[in-house]
Amino acid sequence: MTNLAIWASxxxxxxxxxxxxxxxxxxxxxxxxxxNRKSAGVLTKAAEASIQSVHFSKxxxxxxxxxxxxxxxxxxxxxxxxxxxxxxxxxIINAYPDQILNIHPALLxxxxxxxxxxxxxxxxxxxxxxxxxxxxxxxVNEKYDDGKILFQASTELDLDDQPEIIGRxxxxxEHYYYPKIIEAFVENVLE
Length: 191
Prior knowledge:
The structure is a single chain. The protein has 191 residues and is an alpha/beta fold. It contains 7 helices and 7 strands. The chain is 39% helix and 23% strand. It has a 7-stranded mixed sheet, sandwiched between helices. Strand 2 (28-35), helix 2 (41-48) and strand 3 (53-55) form a beta-alpha-beta unit. The chain is globular. It starts with a strand and ends with a helix.
């Protein structure tokens, strides 16, 4: 059994898509949901799915106050970032080399780097009048949005697509592809 930990900061729509995808999977299990926000909606989704969840403050995550210990106790094999808005500390990257996946709401290398996430990316795409946008699923290293790209998918944009519409189109891609790419990664790389 491959155990996944999902790290998320917000409502958890991507986490929900991943939970649903692996619900009856006999080889891959979402074993933990971690959030840096006490009131994050993703913690409610974890409770509804009977998945262990935990809140760690930003400082606790940065200083490894029990984070790695908990992951080792639960035999976590890979960490899946699903809207997690903090930079991953080096001790986690070192403990999980090439075992941390992230999804970025743009076609990297465009619109990547510090501060470029969600509601910051889509207005930039809109302002540049790009004809398409999309998602990038990549491994995490010590630099923002710099790890090896595993998968990209794009969607065409209309000239009058406002940032909110771009966001919805990109989110559809995220929900559709992220669980499938995680599954392929586990089957082809981790097992």
